[in-house]
């Protein structure tokens, strides 16, 4: 009734984004209409361009706007280090930390017998090929500390064993973490990996 | 670093929407890119059209895509009843309830000495003109139960007194509300407005 057309359709489509519901989608759409020149028009233009240009990097699986992503093209990055992550969001999280200066390989998920995801469904054959063809000295398995993530890490470790140095992220108490709020698995891992002060 | 261009710009602009922060904006953008045909492309098209077409109804201040909004154009609605609200979002909330079949007048805010908002900054002169020119029998003041909202309601009541029947929304216990969680003002209002069962 209020506006049968585009505004209502925009609200309903915005409400399908993760993190937004019907209420926040309405608020966001009103806000965008009020800030048309600052927000709605630029957003429309950016979305049009990203819808046209976004693609997976043919080399590592990162999402960018070129066939080979910025990171793979960046000559200042260390070619010898390859960080294997499950998802593009993990790659982005790693980049925000700024700690890693090598290159990435995005698997696109984890192995899962239940969901019938085998190595061929992921970017695992490509990973193996990169280890053979690029001058990689160390592969860092930065998979999530979930059962599926660790299963996948073990599978990859089996595949690459003897061909390259394999490491994984340290497990322990997160910075700012309080023991009282940590699960037993994390405390056990942190205790087993304890270091001299 | 991850993508200096449009994807990063899209994330940063999405993060400026109410209800989204940097983290949820990243999740939303990744989700949109993955659902390009279902989500990103239609969103871009809708936003482009809404940015071009959205406007305030010249009569009531509702936001729509025509000079006179759907509600003002709808002949089935009761011309005699006029519901005065602060904001378009209040109008939308009222429409969702489906209880009101008259027309609206959106003030565009409340009077505020602090923010130097006087009657001329709101749609109050236009309200007065509508009461004179349209066949309005009752004006329902559906302003928020805040100090500014009630101050504005009093001002409008003063202006329109004697020219039209004035009513306001009932105050009381919200449906599903538990007394234990209600503020004293609401309980007082509900007690004072108590009705025979």
From TrEMBL, chains A, B:
Swiss-Prot/TrEMBL keywords: DNA damage, DNA recombination, DNA repair, Metal-binding, Zinc, Zinc-finger
Biological process, per Gene Ontology: DNA recombination; DNA repair
GO molecular function terms listed in the Swiss-Prot or TrEMBL record: DNA binding; zinc ion binding
Alphabetized CDD domains for the sequence: TOPRIM_recR (cd01025)
Ranges of residues in domain Toprim: 80-174
One matching Pfam family: RecR_C
Zinc finger (C4-type): 57-72
InterPro entries: DNA_Rcmb_RecR (IPR000093), Rcmb_RecR (IPR023627), Rcmb_RecR_Znf (IPR015967), TOPRIM_dom (IPR006171), TOPRIM_RecR (IPR034137)
Gene3D superfamilies cross-referenced by the UniProt entry: 3.40.1360.10, 6.10.250.240, RecR Domain 1 (1.10.8.420)
Described purpose of this protein according to its UniProt entry: May play a role in DNA repair. It seems to be involved in an RecBC-independent recombinational process of DNA repair. It may act with RecF and RecO.
Family: Belongs to the RecR family.
Protein name: Recombination protein RecR
Lineage of the species this protein comes from: Bacteria, Pseudomonadati, Pseudomonadota, Alphaproteobacteria, Rhodobacterales
């Amino acid at each position: 009734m209020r506006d049968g057309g585009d505004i209502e359709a925009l609200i309903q489509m915005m409400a399908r984004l993760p993190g937004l519901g019907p209420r926040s989608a309405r608020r966001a759409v009103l806000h965008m209409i009020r800030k048309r020149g600052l927000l709605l028009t630029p957003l429309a233009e950016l979305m049009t361009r990203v819808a046209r240009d976004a693609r997976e990097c043919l080399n590592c699986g990162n999402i960018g706007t070129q066939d080979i992503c910025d990171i793979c093209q960046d000559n200042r990055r260390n070619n010898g280090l390859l960080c294997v992550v499950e998802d593009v969001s993990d790659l982005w999280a790693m980049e925000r930390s700024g700690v890693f200066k090598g290159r990435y390989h995005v698997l696109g998920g984890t192995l899962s017998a239940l969901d019938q995801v085998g190595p061929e469904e992921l970017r695992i054959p490509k990973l193996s090929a990169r280890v053979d063809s690029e001058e990689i000295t160390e592969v860092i398995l930065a998979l999530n500390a979930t059962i599926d993530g660790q299963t996948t890490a073990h599978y990859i470790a089996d595949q690459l064993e003897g061909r390259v140095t394999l490491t994984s992220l340290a497990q322990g108490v997160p910075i700012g973490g309080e023991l009282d709020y940590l699960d037993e698995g994390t405390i056990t891992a942190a205790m087993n990996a304890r270091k001299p002060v």
